[in-house]
Amino acid sequence: QVTLRESGPALVKPTQALTLTCSFSGFSLNTIGESVSWVRQPPGKALEWLAFIDSDDDKVYSPSLKTRLTISRDTSKKQVVLTMTNMDPVDTATYYCAGPHNVHLGVWGKGTTVTVSS
Amino acid sequence: EIVLTQSPGTLSLSPGDRATLSCRASQSLTKKYISWYQQRPGQAPSLLISDVSIRANGVPDRFSGSGSGTDFSLIISELEPEDFAVYYCQHYSPSPPGLTFGPGTKVEIK
């Protein structure tokens, strides 16, 4: 059974960096075609895809945010980490990780809510 | 970059009604990489349909997807109370690689 769970700070200050961890099980991220994506959703707004990392360690970012994002993986720990720099109040959102493929996101974590405020 | 437009923004219907949700792509899609998700209030999205028309495991057959080119649809044949939610379409682009979500359609109780 594939599961994913997000963890990270609930509150970050403007200009700080946000680091989120996605812990997954039920797949390895070593099999061709597997990947983990990050998606966010500001309160009352639509879903926005941020990035994915795949079994080849290829990293793909949203064009609008790529200068601020870094995604990495630790397959031994079964974790994917997303870092977003220079946080702003408009980045306040629920952040989800999802997988285990990138063509469609079959399983989602419950999400973690991040508020950006001083 | 593909842009997805969903219509209508809100659909007001009654239980038992048929719902037709539209997703339009800004350019013709050569691959069937269109998926649909349901998001109930306070919950994470869940996959309903992949590859335009393939229902995910456990998804009732009242949900169906269709379409090609630039126009795609999600149809809910007879709305159940639990179907009132927000629905998003999503496209995967292999080149350049990336995902795009539509703005969503809210199906609300009339």
Describe this structure in words.
The complex is a heterodimer of chains A (118) and B (110). Chain A has 118 residues and is mostly beta strands. Chain A is globular and about 40 Å long. Chain A starts with a strand and ends with a strand. The mean pLDDT of chain A is 97. The termini of chain B are far apart. Chain B is globular and about 40 Å long. Chain B has 110 residues and is mostly beta strands. In chain B, a hairpin with a 2-residue loop joins strand 8 and strand 9. At the A-B interface, strand 5 and strand 10 of A face strand 4, strand 5, strand 8 and strand 9 of B.
Summarize the structure.
The complex is a heterodimer of chains A (118) and B (110). With 118 residues, chain A is mainly beta.
Describe the structure using short key phrases.
heterodimer; A: 118 residues; mainly beta; 7-stranded mixed β-sheet; 4-stranded antiparallel β-sheet; 11 strands; 0% helix; 49% strand; globular; B: 110 residues; 3-stranded antiparallel β-sheet
- List low-confidence stretches of chain B: none
Shape call of chain A? globular
Structure classification of chain B: mainly beta
Q: Which sheet architecture does the biggest sheet of chain A show?
A: 7 strands, mixed
Judged by helices, strands and strand pairing, the structural class of chain A is mainly beta
Integer-rounded radius of gyration of chain B:
13 Å
Q: What is the distance, rounded to the nearest whole angstrom, between the alpha carbons of the first and last residues of chain B?
A: 36 Å
Q: How many helices of chain A does DSSP assign?
A: 0
Largest interface: A-B, 22 and 23 residues
Question: What is the oligomer described by this structure?
Answer: heterodimer
Fraction of residues in H or I helices of chain A: under 10%
Main sheet: strands, sense, barrel of chain B = 7 strands, mixed
Measured by DSSP, the beta-strand proportion of chain B falls in over 45%
Number of contiguous helices of chain B: 0
Average of per-residue pLDDT values of chain B: 97
Classify the beta-strand content of chain A into a percent band: over 45%
- What is the H/E string of chain B? EEEEEEEEEE
Number of strands of chain B: 10
The proportion of residues forming helix of chain B, as a percent range, comes to under 10%
